[in-house]
Structures are given as structure tokens and as C-alpha cells.
């Protein structure tokens, strides 16, 4: 099996490559990169006018299976990933049952295998994500978990979290933490501030996130464990990570397109579609997130793809579930909001969505180096189009970006040499 990707602009931030090159794929791997390659008998993919980059690596995806198949299945989530240019993803463990044992890790991997998307199920930190008893980290790792997290149910017990860090460090596993103090945020729907006051609702204060980031950073400093802060959403939170990194703490963090694109005002316009945890914040926070992306404090752009059914999202704001889908919109939103706005170079945007998240988990992904898996996304950097949730492959239609005009469109996604998505 040979595939010649011909005539495109190739960007591989991990190796400082940005130029017009052809790519030869053989047996699922990158065989050669060069100008005017020929490969008699190979399938030729005309990439002229397109940009070819490493397949995207999304560290934060809720695939919902087992247990919540009405929201999403591994198959539909992976189809959404393929449409979005994502070839590797970390699946969150808040399924039913939770991914707190090797059997569930293996089940998710088995379901994903035929999709050719590289799915890495994260293991739960605590049994049933109940925050009481640590899971068997070694067994989860042996089954293929690349990291541990109780995402969706932030860990509150500090003694337990400290123990988890010490154990995770021994096994060289990162802990991915959703930082929000549960007592402060309850099941509230929106950021605490102007919008919560206008709606007459209790809000989730920024300090609830920042205190837990501070707490995590200090525990990571003390234990030497690698802590990764999930979907960071506040300017001060970014600043805490910035200072910790300067001290040499093993802390990394991610954000999502919603946090550098939207503010809490979106809730007034779109109600439950804009309900997400942590909540959309203020313009000052959006600016802080952008600054963190620009100066390298933020390591990765992820989606926190969190599909819910239309019925669930039709409930009143105060009891609808939180979350928005993101796999099919993350690259265009990042290109539009960061690259085309002149905030980040194209190579930085691509790195934040491939090379740095891969490196963070120690995965041999996120680069087009010869010999590596041929995972690629080919996109039109400049095509202007309108996001239409009705065209999503995901079962989830819960996006606040429906109807938004964006610039940049995925045309092909290739995983281990197989074309898993092709537009039209
Ligand atoms: O908005 C969110 N939705 N935040 C989370 O942490 C969990 C997620 C979900 O599972 O729906
Ligand atoms: Zn979360």
C-alpha cells in the first residue's frame, strides 16, 4: 500500500518543517518527504492548495460508551474525530460503568479499533469516580491507559489526591485534573458574574477553578508528579500555571476553542448550548487564555467534546447537562480565532493541536518524521464556510458554534496510511 500526497504545503512543527513537499506513505508509515517525489504504482492524492499537518491529537474527548450511547458511541465519536482531522484522542472515563478497570479500557479500545482512529482511554483515578478509593493504576496502564483522570467529577479529597500523585509518579503517568471546587460550583449553570446576576442564578466563580489549580500545582511541586490541568478557562489560572512552570513544577495545561472564542454573554444568546464546565468566562479571561497560548504557558488545544442529547439540552438552563461537542469544529475555530486573527503562527496552532499534546503523553505521534505512523490532516487554510451542526457525524448537536462563519476546512484525514475522512 503506497500513497503519494502530492503538491501540498507541509507543516511539521516538531521538526521545524514548513514548505512545499510531497509525502510518500508506505505500509501505513511516512516513508519519504521531498520535492517532486515519484512513486510508480502508488495512489496519488492531489494536495495542491492544501496544507498537510500531523493528524490532530485531542487529549480530552467524551465518547460516552459504555452507558450513554444515546449521546455518542465510540463509532460515532470516532467518525466525528475523523471529520475534524483528529487521528489520536484520549477518551474520558466518565462512562457507565466508569473506566476504572482494565476491562473497560479494553472494551473502548476494541470498539475503536475498526475506526482506525487511535483511541487511548484514560483510566479513572478513583473507583467509580467516587473520590474515595484509588483504582489499580498499574493495571490501567498495562491495559493501555495513557493517563488518569476523574474528569467530570473533580477530586476534592486532598489526602487522596496526594496519594494519587505519588502513585502516578511511580508509574510515570500524568494526572489530568478538572479543577473546580465542588462546594463552590455545585451544579450551577454559568460563570459567577454579570450574566449570573442578570439571570438571577447562582454562578460558578473563577476562584473555584483557580484555587484548585493552585492546590494541584503545589501538590505537584511537593510530590514531583506530572499534573495536567484540564480545560483551563481563567486568566488567573493561566498565570498560576505560568509561575509554576517558571519554578520548574511538572505542570502542563490545555484549553478549548470555546475559552478563547466565547464569553459568558453567549449564555444570554444561546442558553443551554453555551452551558459548559468550567463555564464560559469574561473577555479578560479570553484575553488571558490567548496570552497563555501565545507565550507557551498553555500546552495544548483540546475539545472537551461532550455530546448530550437534544432532549437533555432542551431542559431549563439550571438543570440541563453541561458540555458542547467540539471534534468537528476545533481546527477551523483555532485557525480562525488564533491564526487568521494574527495571534499565533500557523506552525504554533498546529503544534498546539498535535506535537505538544503528543509529547505531553510521550506518544510517538504529532510529527511527520520518516518511519512514524502516517497520521495526517489535510486542510484548506483559507476556505470560508459556515458551521452546520446538522452535518456533524457526532450524535451530539450541542454546539454554540452552529451558524458561525469560519476560515479553514478539513479536506482529508489519514490515519496509519488509511484515508478515514474525505470531504464530500
Ligand atoms: O462541560 C462538561 N461536560 N465538563 C465536564 O467536565 C464533563 C463534561 C461531560 O462529561 O459532559
Ligand atoms: Zn472536565
Report on the structure:
It is a single chain. The chain has 424 residues and is α/β, with parallel strands linked by helices. The chain folds into 2 domains: 100 residues, Urease, subunit C, domain 1; 306 residues, TIM Barrel, CATH 3.20.20. 31% of the residues lie in helices and 23% in strands. The protein is built from 15 helices and 18 strands. The mean pLDDT is 98. The chain starts with a strand and ends with a strand. The strands form 4 sheets. Strands 1, 2, 3, 4, 5, 16, 17 and 18 form an 8-stranded mixed β-sheet that branches. Strands 9-10-13-14-15 form a 5-stranded parallel β-sheet. A 3-stranded parallel β-sheet has the order 6-7-8. It is globular. Bound molecules: (4S)-2,6-dioxohexahydropyrimidine-4-carboxylic acid and zinc ion. Zinc ion binds next to loops.
Amino acid at each position: 500500500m503506497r500513497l503519494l500526497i502530492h503538491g501540498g504545503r507541509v507543516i511539521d512543527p516538531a521538526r521545524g518543517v514548513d514548505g512545499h513537499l510531497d509525502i510518500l506513505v508506505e505500509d501505513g508509515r511516512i516513508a519519504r518527504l521531498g520535492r517532486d517525489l515519484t512513486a510508480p504504482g502508488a495512489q496519488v492524492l492531489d494536495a495542491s492548495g492544501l496544507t498537510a499537518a500531523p493528524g490532530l491529537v485531542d487529549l480530552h474527548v467524551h465518547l460516552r460508551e459504555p452507558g450513554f450511547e444515546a449521546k455518542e458511541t465510540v463509532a460515532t465519536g470516532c467518525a466525528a474525530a475523523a471529520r475534524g482531522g483528529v487521528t489520536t484522542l484520549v477518551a474520558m472515563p466518565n462512562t457507565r460503568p466508569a473506566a476504572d478497570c482494565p476491562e473497560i479500557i479494553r472494551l473502548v479500545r476494541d470498539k475503536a479499533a475498526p475506526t482506525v482512529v487511535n483511541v487511548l482511554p484514560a483510566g479513572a483515578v478513583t473507583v467509580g469516580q467516587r473520590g474515595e478509593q484509588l483504582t489499580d493504576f498499574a493495571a490501567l496502564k498495562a491495559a493501555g491507559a495513557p493517563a488518569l483522570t476523574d474528569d467530570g467529577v473533580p477530586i476534592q479529597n486532598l489526602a487522596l489526591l496526594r496519594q494519587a500523585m505519588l502513585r502516578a509518579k511511580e508509574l510515570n503517568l500524568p494526572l489530568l485534573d478538572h479543577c473546580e471546587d465542588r462546594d463552590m460550583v455545585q451544579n450551577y449553570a454559568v460563570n459567577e458574574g454579570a450574566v449570573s446576576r442578570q439571570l438571577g442564578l447562582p454562578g460558578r466563580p473563577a476562584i473555584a477553578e483557580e484555587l484548585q489549580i493552585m492546590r494541584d500545582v503545589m501538590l505537584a511541586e511537593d510530590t514531583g508528579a506530572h499534573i495536567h490541568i484540564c480545560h483551563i478557562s481563567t486568566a488567573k489560572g493561566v498565570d498560576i500555571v505560568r509561575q509554576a512552570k517558571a519554578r520548574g513544577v511538572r505542570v502542563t495545561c490545555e484549553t478549548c476553542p470555546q475559552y478563547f472564542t466565547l464569553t459568558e454573554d453567549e449564555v444570554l444568546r444561546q442558553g443551554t448550548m453555551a452551558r459548559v464546565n468550567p463555564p464560559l468566562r469574561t473577555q479578560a479571561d479570553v484575553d488571558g487564555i490567548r496570552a497563555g497560548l501565545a507565550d507557551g504557558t498553555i500546552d495544548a488545544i483540546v475539545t472537551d467534546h461532550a455530546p448530550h442529547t437534544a432532549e437533555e439540552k432542551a431542559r431549563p438552563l439550571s438543570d440541563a447537562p453541561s458540555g458542547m461537542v467540539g471534534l468537528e469544529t476545533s481546527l477551523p475555530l483555532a485557525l480562525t480565532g488564533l491564526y487568521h486573527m494574527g495571534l499565533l503562527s500557523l506552525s504554533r496552532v498546529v503544534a498546539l493541536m498535535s506535537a505538544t499534546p503528543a509529547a505531553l503523553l510521550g506518544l510517538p505521534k504529532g510529527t511527520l518524521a520518516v518511519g512514524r505512523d502516517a497520521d495526517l490532516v489535510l486542510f484548506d487554510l483559507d476556505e470560508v464556510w459556515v458551521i452546520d451542526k446538522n452535518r456533524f457525524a457526532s450524535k451530539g448537536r450541542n454546539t454554540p458554534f452552529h451558524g458561525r462563519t469560519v476560515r479553514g476546512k478539513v479536506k482529508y484525514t489519514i490515519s496509519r496510511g488509511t484515508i478515514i475522512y474525505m470531504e464530500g
